[in-house]
Amino acid sequence: MATSRRLEPDVSTNAERHLVGLCRTDRRSHQSCAQTPVASEGTDRFQLTRYEHAFSEYNSLPLGARARSTTSNHVNTQADPFMSNVTIRDIKTILTEPDGIRLVIVKIETSEPGLHGVGCATFTQRPTAVASAIDDYLRPFLIGRNVADIEDIWQSSYVSSYWRNGPVLNNALSGIDQALWDIKGKMANMPVYDLLGGRARVAAPVYVHTSGDSHEEVGDKVQAFVEQGFHHVRVQMSTPGYATYGNKGAATGASTASNHDTTQGPIANNDWLRDYDPNKLYAHPGGVYEPKPYMRSALGLFEYIRGRFGYGLEILHDVHERIPPILGVWFAKEVEKYQLFFLEDLFSPEDQAYFKMVREQCATPIAMGELHNNPHEVVPMIQNRLMDFIRIHMSQIGGITPARKLAAMGELYNVRTAWHGPGDTSPVGHAANMMLNLNTYNFGIQEANIPSERTREMFPGTPTLKDGMMWSNGKPGLGIDIDEEMAAKFPFKEREFGGAWDTVRRADGSMVKP
Known about the structure:
alpha/beta, Enolase-like, domain 1, 3 domains, 3-stranded antiparallel β-sheet, 36% helix
């Protein structure tokens, strides 16, 4: 009995394979490209241009020019003009501040009309330094390079300054890297997570932030998020009489030296404290911070939250590296009974050896990595299973290219990802995070920032939040763009100290890591 089989075109060259790919049925929508243009918002002109011109250019070639050269392992560039020869035409940095946080966005324009990519290079404490690194160094280094060569561009750019690493250079490199992945996805007409192997999940669970001056205030904010469908909530609270991390409404400056009850904490010296002018803008005001009053306050908050909401709700907390390491070991042990989803930045990167002591004494889940710049700083933490969540800021280590490698390493050791994602991760950065969140099997959680309508308008394609999860729109590349005209209407605001974080101090005046 004869069997029938579906005949496919003979696609022996890259150009032929690509053109056939453009015409194949879209399995998600069950519509062929003959019925629907191969396009999406922001990429339509590029897609239609290359679709029409590719066929005309390819069909005009002699038959011999369409085949692979018999004397070379490379595809004849004439046979595949836009796939082999798309180059970087220009690199632009876009500085904008739609909602109180300075953002740095990179836009790469290519030799193919209408084809561009965007990436996040936001280092909000030093944004103009990042812009200079891109404009003065990476731009001239990369113009004319083939956009397909992401790996080589990353590796060569990484060492182009000889001395490497650090938040300025890595964020600059990240903006380039993310934009190139965006371009590659658009050229393939698929989201970046498909280029990486496809989805491991439908959407990415997120956690949101709550803070307040009292147990009840924090609890009420938790309740509001629960009613919106969020299952993971970070909880932070002011420390009575002192400064604290994680509550923007908390006291700052001289008002954090108000404790005079020595049974609760030391009396603070305020000689080096500043008074802050309410008419001026400060990135992160300083104040007096004391570890033991903070720890007692935090433990009381956990007790209250568990008493009010039970143990079914996932709660998280960020120490932000502020307490002495040996107190951090004690704190992790005390926290264990409250069953946190994770405890973040218990130690600074310089004190990572103390995580071994924590592992030996308790099972509190640990998230770490926000302050790492060099991807290699994380390797021992993964290998020795000293953390449970990779908490890296993707642009801080150089973009998608190094982050996907760390995620793959984490899978081998059953260490999950939890990419840094507060407001100083731009919507473009969140879109990049989402590509790995959906693709990575060992994904754990994504920190969420709830963008304003203004920000969403400026960044069409911003990932959406629903039912406690972040959702990608499934469009090619990163699925996001920036309205440059709108971005120009929101330049950086003037800040005191150039936007630097002011100093947090102990009661005796000594500096505390922020």
